[in-house]
Amino acid sequence: QVQLVESGGGLVQPGGSLRLSCAAPGLALDSYAMGWFRQAPGKEREGVACIGYNGGSKYYADSVKGRFTVSRDNAKRMVYLHMNSLKPEDTAVYYCAANLMRSICVSPGTTQMDEFHYWGQGTPVTISS
After folding, report:
1. What is the reported pLDDT for 111?
2. In contact, 22 and 5? CB cutoff 8 Å
3. What is the bridge-based pairing of β-strands 68-73 and 78-83?
């Protein structure tokens, strides 16, 4: 059973930065679009960013455009989410997942969430002073 492993979360002051990592052991990463999602307390899970199989297509949620950057290294089976200018409203548990139905992205992921699989345990991000 494949399971992705997220890491890199933590407590950061507003305006700070974090880099989240997603490891995909045992998964042929270069076949799938990969997504980052988040779920804040009391809210539904939402798509944050999606990156196509070769890094060529990227989509971001409006709330993170210009602040977050998604990247991937297929050789290392890793996906990353670089987060800058963090805000308290970015506080959430962040998850990565693989889109088993698409190799390219068509949205940040919220509307295709049922296409994503191999969800990890998530990594918590808290933005607070």
Report:
1. 86
2. yes
3. antiparallel
Binned at pLDDT 50, 70 and 90, residue 4 comes out as very high
Asked whether 71 and 52 are in contact (CB, 8 A), the reply is no
Q: List alpha helices for the chain, DSSP H.
A: none
**DSSP per-residue letters across 3-39:** --EEE--EEE-TT--EEEEEE-TT--GGGSEEEEEEE
Summarised one tens digit per residue, pLDDT across range 60-76 is: 999 999 999 999 999 99
d(CA 49, CA 100): 16
72, 82 in Cβ contact below 8 A?
Answer: no
CA-CA distance, 46 to 85, in Å (whole number)? 19
CA distances from 108 to 12, 19, 25, 60 (A): 24, 18, 23, 5
pLDDT in the model for residue 71: 97
Instruction: Find how far residue 94's CA is from the centre of its chain.
Output: 7
- Cα(128)–Cα(109) distance, rounded to whole angstroms? 26
